[in-house]
Amino acid sequence: MTGLRYVYAVCRPFGAALEDGPAGVAGVPPRQMSHRGLIAIVSTVPEEDFAEAPLRAHLEDLEWLTATARAHQGVIDALTSVTTPLPLRLATVFRDDSGVRAMLEEREEDFHRALERLDGRVEWGVKVYAEEERKESVQEPAGDRKAVSGRDYLRQRRLRHQAHEEMRENTERFARRLHETLSGFAEDSLLHPPQNPALSKAAGRNVLNAAYLVPRSASEAFVERVDRENSGVPGVRVELTGPWAAYSFSADEGRARP
């Protein structure tokens, strides 16, 4: 086949068909490439888009990058439903099949070790947000309303500050307790840096951004545990995402997850 080889993930041989028949990057359905007990999931993509120079330009194009990331993720999601994939980084491209096989051979031991560790496991993400605090305004004197004295104004400001600090401490205490509880339930966990709200567009301050490695068979119990711990704490919002391929726990830590 002419064209370059786009590699999504590495996994063990599996017999089930991929759900929904993912279209793949550049609209090319993925195929399996076998090599010594490993499977690379690849698509043949056009050189005019994925050679080094045009790819570098495309990675600056948000629309192209978003479409490619979604197609990449669609393949990873389909794989996760039938096997345990090790996702590779977005836009991992090789010249031909021999380049893919050389990569598999070079990293064979690492891939087998990671697949042994992650087999039958998925990743769940948990984020805790402190809801945005309402800005209270000092009422201006009107009509016969008594003006607020300078001392009263400072007192109100101090009380509001104390209330905000107490809410902040309660949220962080809740996040620490939740992470400790879920880490004890999961086989492994990882703390990511808090999300930048300007990039994530999520409301509130991100207090916890964590990933948990959980056996697929225990996923329902894990979700129930999160729900149980999130018992309507005032000023706190908990978001659960997954199940994902184990991005955070694979050696190559994929970059295409939304």
From TrEMBL:
It is found in: Gas vesicle. The keyword Acyltransferase does not apply. The keyword Nucleotide-binding does not apply. It comes from the Bacteria. Keywords: Gas vesicle. Signal peptide: none annotated. Its main location: other. Belongs to the gas vesicle GvpF/GvpL family. This is GvpL/GvpF family gas vesicle protein. It comes from Streptomyces glomeratus.
